[in-house]
Amino acid sequence: MSEAVEQTRRTHWSGVADDAERDRWTRVAEEVAVTLAADALERDRRGEQPFAESRLLQESGLVNLLDPAELGGGGGHWESAFLVVRVLARADASIAQLLGYHYINSANVAFVAPAAEREGWLRRTIEGRWIWGDSVNPVDPNLVLRPDGAGFRLDGFKRFSTGSGVGEALLVNAVVEGGEHDGRLAYLVLPYGHPGVELVDDWDNLGQRLSASNTVRYHDVRVGPEHVLGLGTDEPFQSLVTPGIQLVFGNLYLGIAQGALAQGRELTLARPNSWFLSAADTYREDPFVQRLYGELVSRVAAVEALADRVNRSFDRTIDRGSAVTADDRAALAIEVAQLKAVSSDTAVDVANRVFEATGSSSTASHVGLDLHWRNARTHSLHDPVDFKKLEVGAHFLTGAVQPISLYT
């Protein structure tokens, strides 16, 4: 490949996944999902940092799915990565979130790092089987990053730092105050246990309890040049990180809905008899129950078809590398927003209404059917879905697109 073509492509990702690749990673994800499903409810109740689950992801090879094969990575495409998130979310949405965020966080090597430094970051990631956590919450502008010699000093805190409790690498976003880079967004990578970094084990929420999304506090943290991944720009290619994370969300919600339906089906088939006013002999034969599942299954199937299409669109856009335009990026963002709108609402609704078919006995704590709803309800509040609907509607009516941010 010529140097000019390589520079245009910008990354090791090219083309789209074929059937063999998707099948390979689906099988791996399904094996991991079986292990996770065996004690998902018990682990959720304990709410401990997911060190064991992280090792499972590392040993399976899933953490390196997107890394270049020539350096020892999985050589996979984004379509496969999104599909893996979806498969895991059927069994354990917390760990699916952890892995999905890792994919996006580590992808900043391609989106942000200078070309000459990318291979070094990739080699360390692959050889160490790193999981990349993050501390980037844009609505917590509570970090102070000031120049200090050749590097910086970092103070403050960030909430909702997914993967920070277990990841080998912690991606941190902070705006520089002072010096030649004043006002620019810096992407920092700190190793687990870096001096001055305090991991606060305070993630005790309704759902996604094992996503390690705790608070991180920074106490006069030295940030050397070796910890600086790169600086933010207004380049359309670099900003693909936001459609990427929102696509993780769409596939996460779809997987949760599929998991709720699968468990609901098992419970419904196991129910004896039927409601005393029904003409059917069993609940599975009751037309009202069948109609309910018909509606829910059809909605989930429609979301799946949209997700598959948008997942592939992401790979096709990535393939354009530095040739990606603002219009390309905007078109992709609208597709992703469409998926976010329908997948979010569908997951919450399906995980709620499936109880209508499974009955009051399915609300028992030991059944754990509520886990799907708790996970969907918690993560779907990440950023208001109404703004995604507004984004889609405004574009449809006026052609307007949202300004680029870490949420749009």
UniProtKB/TrEMBL annotation:
The keyword Oxidoreductase applies. SUPFAM superfamilies: Acyl-CoA dehydrogenase C-terminal domain-like, Acyl-CoA dehydrogenase NM domain-like. Pfam families: Acyl-CoA_dh_2, Acyl-CoA_dh_N. GO terms for molecular function: 3-methylbutanoyl-CoA dehydrogenase activity; flavin adenine dinucleotide binding. InterPro entries: Acyl-CoA_DH_C, Acyl-CoA_Oxase/DH_mid-dom_sf, AcylCo_DH-like_C, AcylCoA_DH/ox_N, AcylCoA_DH/ox_N_sf, AcylCoA_DH/oxidase_NM_dom_sf. Residues 248-383 form the Acyl-CoA dehydrogenase C-terminal domain. The keyword RNA-binding does not apply. One of its GO terms (biological process) is L-leucine catabolic process. Keywords: Oxidoreductase. Residues 28-128 form the Acyl-CoA dehydrogenase/oxidase N-terminal domain. It comes from the Bacteria. PANTHER family: ACYL-COA DEHYDROGENASE, ISOVALERYL-COA DEHYDROGENASE, MITOCHONDRIAL-RELATED. This is Acyl-CoA dehydrogenase family protein. It comes from Microbacterium betulae.
